[in-house]
Every structure is written in structure tokens, then in C-alpha cells.
């Protein structure tokens, strides 16, 4: 009985304290596509993700009712950093769905014109608003509508404590007249949330008007700067020093106790395996604490554990080839930064085409054989074997209306040999060891795709090469040779493909540059670079997130300057979040059912080359 009464009381108090308009709530997912288009059309960084942000701590003066209900400790605010723009997970600030949607759009416009960091939060926001309203006068009525609704939601100045009144007055004046310079006095608490402004990415203390200083990004390793991501919204994080592991508590069953020689201190944060329990816990946390550990030592230990002994590893060919890498922070191409190591598989032997692929291979060969010599009619020729009826009718009509000029109205039958070469570059990272069903893994599907692709191009007669790649940091980019342009497609090549095994990480930029250099040497008018992958660029050093995406994009730009046609085929269902920026909207395709990749890869090649 007491619990029931308590739950009823709690529900009543929370409802009385809550000032949101639930009936007018607009979810981020409802406007995600619209704000993405708006942000980029106004000059926002194309590589930035636009995602929902969980409510964050905001220290304001609360009423007694709020304290009893335990509400208003957190507020949904908009903010951005170098990698993404974070908009509220939902907005129910106003009693109108239209105004709540307009607030999403206004915050997006604001983000497209603002910097990641603030020198003075309030003054910078005021200046950005003034700039936008001067540049886009048509936005002023929308801003005034939002401003009027926002001011109605704020507690009147005369009902605030005297210590907060002068600050609130300055805030309101800055919102009403963004063009006028304003001074903002300090106070013990932050002002009421200003939903029309962007907030800093760093945590806001009681006084949000102090100058913002940011830490040196070069001193943070990728794993430090990585934020845990939930399926719904971004969480705020804080960093603390790693505690001494000797003081930790270990819970174990006696029969599972390791000997001292079997134990290694490996930072769990560096593990690539998915932990569903951790994700579930992250969903429930408002603030996630990340310990500062010895990432460089962890990375070094990870290399020693992952790489096989030299006697068991694939055969290296030469000392490696140096390739540059793009540093997006300095906007420069750093020469000789990566070392690409060509490799030949050690454990492989000649193999025939697997029995389960022979029927599909025969069908694909029959489809591609007719492409070996394209025959077509050339229209409106001065001579030919047949009349071009369309050209002759045009000539006849013109001759009746006026004096027609002599016209070419013959059809000429012409044989035209294909002048195309293709290089297939496949991702062989450790993620390809994942199962797509009970029978096959991703690497199995990639092998079958390579084999059927080779059967198709052998039938059509187009020169082609196949390479695979993975990496362990920038000094070890593995570039596996499966078939070069000078080799015939034989059982030896099939044996190499069938002997493939998952590798390590995905340093895509260096591999693309190496493949581009090889393909650019071919003497053909059409050079197609196909890239087969199952995920985004990443590695265990700094090469992840935006760094890897920007480097890969620059590698694709360089490939196009070499006269190549890069095209990406992916089975990553989240590829639309980053591949349009790297390859362009028409430069990639997603195979949502990976088991269909072997059949679709040759057909994609046919579609890409049918007009050449």
C-alpha cells in the first residue's frame, strides 16, 4: 500500500514539475534528414555526423517543487565538436509542433555558421545570430517567432533572485537585439536554458560566461577521444586518471585462475569485440567516465599478440613501398608516412573452381562472352550499308520547307573492341571473420565474389587485377597480391583466393593510393578501381573516425586526378553515413544481403562498363 501511494505521489509531483509540452513533441529522427540537408547546403562540414544528444547536466536555480520531484537536473541542449553536430533527442519546449520543428532548423543554421570552440559563449552566440540575420533577412520573422515563444517560457525577471536579475536582463537584451554589444555579469547559477543558442561541447559549470579553453588535441590518443555511442543519443564523457590495478578486486572461480605467465594487462577499452552488456549500461548512464590509460603500450602489446611469427606469415616482396597520408587537421598530405608491404600468401596451392560455384560461373561466363566485342550502329554517317531512316526523314522535311543541305543519312555497322582495365581491391580486415549466417562468414563471401568476378572478366577479355589489404598501424599496411595484370587467371590464382584469411585493420587510404599507382600504369582509355569493403576506415593508432575518412576521401580525389574511376561496393548497412562524403552519391553501392554479393559483383561491373 505504501509503495502504491508513493508511486502515485511521485508521478503527480513529476507531472506538476514538468513544463514540457508532450503533445507538441518533435523527435530528432523526424527531422534528421532535413537538418542534414540544411546543414550541408549552408556550408557545414560535409564529414560531420548529425546525431541526437542525450540531456546533459545544467546547473540552474531550481524551485522547491523541482527539488522534491528530482527534475530539471539535466537539459536537452544543442552543441557540436569536430566530429559531429549534436541536436536534442527531442524538443517539446513550445506548445506548437511547428515551432519545435523550427527550433531544430534554427539550431542547424546556427551550427553551420559557428565555430566548434567559443571564446565567450554568450557574446559569440550573439554575434553569430546577428551575422545570420543580416545575411538571410528572410529568417528574421522565423527568429522573432521563436524568440517570442521562448521569452514566454522564461521566468519573469522580477520573480528571480536579485543575484540573477541583472544576468537575465542581459540575456534577454542579447536575444532581442543581437547586433548590440552586451556585457554579461557573473552569477552563482547559470541562466535559464537558452534554447536558441548553441552550447559549448565542454561541460558548463555554474558560470557559462567564462572564456573557454580546450586541451591540446595532439596529446589525446584516439581511444581517449573516442566517446561511447548508444543507439539513441550521444553521451557526455569525463576523463580520470587510470587507477592502480593492484588495488582492484578480482572475482574468479578457482579452476579458472591463470598462472602468472598467462596473464597480460590489456586495456579493455582497446578491445574490438562488441559487448552488449556495456552498451546496455551506457544507455542508462548520463555521464560516462573514461580512464586515461597507457594507450601506446596497449597498442604495442596488441601488435605483438596479433601478428604471426615471420616464419608463419605471408611472404613479403621487397622492403615495402612508402605512401603519403592526409592530415585533415593541418590540411596537408604528409609524404612517406605509410609503408605498404606487398605480400604473397604462404599457404596456398592450385585449386579448381569450387563445385558449388560452377553452375553460377557458367551462367556468368555466357552472359559476359558477348561483351568481348561490342557491335553497334553508327548513325547519320556519310556512307554505310543501310539508310538511317530518322536522318533521312529530317532531310526530307527540311527539303520541303526550304533548300535543305546535304545530310548524312546512312547507318554504318562497326565492331568496337573494349578498352577497359579493372583493379579489384578488397578489404581483408578482421571484421570479415564475422558470420553472415550459420554456414558462411564475410571472408567466404568475398572469396566467392572474387572467383565469379574473375570468371566474368576472363570471359569478356578485360585485363584485371585483384589485391587485398589490411593494416596494423601506418608502418605495416599489408597489400596481398592475388592476381596482377600480367598473370593469367588459372588454378594458381584460384588457390590464392581460396587461401585468403582475415587480417587486421582497415587503413584504406594507403591501400587505395597503392592500387591507384598500379592501375594508372595500364594503357587503356577506361580504368576502373573497384573497392570492396565491409566497414569504414580504421586502425589502432590515430587512424579512425574523421582522420581515416578524410584520408580515404583524399585518396579517392587523387585517384580521379590520375584518370581512374573509383567505385565502392560495401555490405556495411551504415555506409550512407560516410561513403557519400568519400565517394560521392553515385560512387558507391550497398549490398544489404551479403550472401548476394558473389552474384551481384559481376553484374555491377557490367553496369559500370556497358557504355564503354
UniProtKB/TrEMBL annotation:
Q: Which CDD domains match?
A: vWA_norD_type
Q: Kindly give the Pfam families that the UniProt entry links to this protein.
A: VWA
Segments carrying the region annotation (Disordered) are 209-242
Cross-referenced InterPro entries? NorD/CobT, VWF_A, vWFA_dom_sf
Write out the biased-composition intervals (Low complexity): 211-223
In terms of PROSITE patterns, this protein maps to: VWFA
The species this protein was found in: Photobacterium pectinilyticum
Q: Which domain of life is it from?
A: Bacteria
What protein name does the entry list?
A: VWA domain-containing protein
Every VWFA domain range? 419-608
